[in-house]
Specification:
globular; 3 domains; Ribonucleotide Reductase Protein R1, domain 1; metal-binding; cytoplasm; OB fold (Dihydrolipoamide Acetyltransferase, E2P); about 20% helix; alpha/beta; Rossmann fold; binds zinc ion; about 300 residues; binds guanosine-5'-triphosphate
Length: about 300
């Protein structure tokens, strides 16, 4: 029987069968996966699998096969630096919840997320939450980021999840799609989910008096059906989002604002750093590429292969 994975803890899974039933599923002791993914979790949320009912079991199933993934997002495994952790598979879009304040999401983090999504050909959406606490300077910052990212082609929304503002627009963006929701701990993911899935009261935690670090209230990735159609995947608070598998030399391909210039550099292996005749740097100087985006590029470029995120 075909089923979709809605929850993955690494040792057991929740699968929704083609007939709409939720079942607890496990992997048999020996489970072979095609391909070369060395991952700490062979099956991830969003995976399409084949299951068979366990002998004698009423509502427990064994996963016997996994369908080829349309795409997936990975990060370095929290347990092992050399392994990957598949965050979710078969996505239509990746939504990053960010905040300009309490806590401020760094542009470097946003850009690493966007690079990763681009590398896996997953459209990305930025949702800036906690609008209600933004001061004039923060609104300016948001307006700048909105202009920069929309001009690249990303969808940018502004919400005040706790007050229910901007939720209609978010629902429209999520409609009939499978969306991965991520973001740092404390940006308001659970609060947003509670707005679009009112039946499901996720625990939110109070981070008033925010001092940088928060406890994770969400531990495992989980997928939910949206009432109007579509699915939403909630992930554990991601403090880090790894760029895995992207060679340094290819990084600029995933900066979508750099793409139009890449063939115009003097050297065809130009890394857009100190090389003469670099069309990307000329575009930055001409204000056609945002300077902070370029600085993110340089920072990410230097970090690849030298340290794990
Ligand atoms: N001022 C303000 N606070 C908000 C808003 N949305 C959420 N919060 C608060 O921010 C804190 C964190 O919200 P959560 O929804 O738990 O954040 P989260 O992203 O799910 O956090 P993790 O589960 O740790 O990943 C809570 O105290 C919320 O009440 C908002 O729009 N404005
Ligand atoms: Zn160049």
């Amino acid at each position: 029987m075909q089923a979709t994975i809605y929850k993955s803890t690494g040792s057991w899974y929740v699968a929704k069968s083609a007939t709409g039933e939720f079942l607890q599923a496990r992997l048999p002791g020996i489970f072979k996966i095609d391909g070369d993914i060395t991952s700490t979790n062979p099956i991830a949320v969003g995976d399409e699998v084949t299951i068979s009912m366990e002998d004698g079991g009423q509502d427990t199933a064994v996963i016997t096969d996994i369908a080829e993934r349309k795409n997936y997002i990975v990060r370095s495994s929290p347990q092992s630096r050399h392994k990957k952790h598949i965050v979710a598979a078969n996505l239509d879009q990746a939504v990053l919840v960010c905040t300009v304040r309490e806590p401020r999401t760094s542009q470097g983090f946003i850009d690493r997320f966007l690079v990763t999504a681009a590398a896996y050909h997953i459209p990305a959406v930025l949702v800036f939450n906690k609008k209600d606490v933004y001061k004039a300077k923060d609104i300016e910052k948001f307006a700048h980021w909105k202009e920069v990212y929309e001009s690249i082609g990303y969808t940018v929304l502004l919400t005040a999840a706790a007050a229910g503002e901007g939720i209609r627009e978010l629902e429209q963006v999520l409609h009939n799609k499978t969306s991965l929701l991520s973001g740092h701990s404390g940006v308001g993911k659970s609060t947003l989910i509670n707005q679009v899935l009112p039946d499901l009261q996720l625990k939110t935690k109070n981070v008033s008096g925010w001092s940088g670090k928060g406890m994770h209230t969400t531990t495992f990735a989980e997928m939910f059906d949206l009432p109007g159609g579509g699915r939403l995947i909630d992930t554990p608070g991601l403090r880090e989002f790894g760029i895995v598998d992207i060679p340094k030399a290819e990084l600029s391909h995933y900066f979508l604002d750099m793409q139009p210039y890449l063939n115009s550099c003097q050297f065809n292996n130009c890394q857009h750093l100190d090389e003469p005749g670099c069309a990307v740097k000329e575009a930055v100087e001409a204000g056609e590429i945002d300077m902070e985006r370029y600085l993110s590029y340089v920072a990410i470029w230097h970090s690849i292969g030298e340290k794990d995120y």
